[in-house]
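re: ur question from earlier - yeah i can do the single chain one, its not a big deal. heres the input i used so u can compare w yours
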Amino acid sequence: MSEDQTPAQEVERESMEFDVVIVGAGPAGLAAAIRLKQLDENLSVVVLEKGGEVGAHILSGAVVDPVAINKLVPDWQEQEGHPFQTPVKKDIFNYLTKTGKIRLPNLTMPPLMNNHGNYIVSLGNVCRWLGEKAEALGVEIYPGFAAAHVVFDGDKVIGVATGDMGVQPDGSPGPNFERGMALLGKYTLIGEGVRGSLAKQLIAKFNLSKDCEPQKYGIGIKELWEVSDEQHQAGLVQHSFGWPLDDKTGGGSFLYHLENNQVAVGFVLHLNYKNPYISPFEEFQRFKSHPAIKDIFKGAKRLSYGARAISEGGWQSVPKLTFPGGSLIGCSAGFVNVPRIKGSHNAMLSGMQAAEAVSQALAAGHVGEELTSLNESWRTSEIGKDLKRVRNAKPLWSKFGTTLGIMLGGVDMWIITLTGGWSPFGSLKHKKADFECLEPASQHSKIDYPKPDGKLTFDRLSSVYLSNTNHEESQPAHLKLLNDSLQKSSEHDVFDGPSSRYCPAGVYEWVEENGEDKFVINFQNCVHCKTCDIKDPNQNLNWTCPQGGEGPVYGGM
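and the output i got, formated as tokens:
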């Protein structure tokens, strides 16, 4: 038995054995756990969650397509306390100019963009509710336990190990040191979300991405507000694109009116942007100041803040899902539908599909064999149908810019809808990874962002405070700088330190010390968005799990 890493401590791990080990109590992991117990109540299933509670690290818009929950819990509407309280009543699409807006007629939008029949929710609350369902079926859920290592038997995955607790900054055991535990399973499902540290290792080890396009990403930044009665319209969904971004920089925004006078406002910036002076956080603050947006927040109170990377590669970028002993599920594989800004329904469906494949394998007496059928079955399922019809939206946007790219993407989606799948573009490629798109600072000018007013627009540190983020300082930094000199010679000298701008939590900064520029990592601020792991131009920053239970604690997000 071996791990993907050799810990510095040589204390033997204790272990527990299960039929199925699931990493991540998100929509995919919880759906997989519930489906496994529905199929065979005698299976032993455990779910590890790095957040201090189920839902603590969950962040999404979110407008949810109920296709998956209808399958998983068919009678959910009859149950008290379910989280799907606000059906979409009105759908608005706007193109923002600097001072005004142009509303796009709903009739011009491809049918798949219609949100009627969907629900505006807190995805964190959805996961809390699903967690209760899973536990009622006998699933063991361990919040506060971060899966830090993959456990192998040869080349077969046989489980995961949680991170050690009480490790000092130099890596040595502290006075409260506790060795992480190995959780061993006949099958292991990895549902960590976007750019998960274990999924990243497994994709590299088993070369799972060799036959697909590079994964593409965006950063989504979200605030939850309590607004006045006059400004609240329960069930209103508003999407926009355009200002404050220029035509060459992809992204957009959303306003979702939930119950209880709450409004979720968010901004998504595609991480293939070129200008190293762009700050996604500052662009979000600028967006809220637009004349068509700012009045919604008059007399309102900001309740919460968070940020999270979003997978945007879609159909072309989904890696091979399976490896000996397990599978990637949910956003660890990248099942987000970019034009619809939805992924939780596909995440749940993928978890259910994996659960069904695992259940069949175990019933047939197979242990740890590769579930190869999943690699084709998802493409012919509802997930594949959902992603294939929007496969060219992102490449067209990237190639032709916002205005022309969105027009061409809309035409392509209409053609695919009308022809049953054919596109004049075929299936376009993404070509470059996002970190390869960043250009040297010498090719761009600095951006003068307005100072925050503390009422509508804010600074990063006060925002991080609202995310309830906490990391014990007396531990090794979970954000690993691989090469100090490269960070100075390239990230600083060539790109002028974009890490201080792309991070939405103020983790990274360059400071002058004894006449020299020094790179500082304030890992205590990290909201686990993974943007640094994606956008660093040299892939010189590696996000790993901190101690279990640490990070943000999102309320109602």
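The first strand starts at residue 2 and ends at 3. not sure if urs matches, ping me
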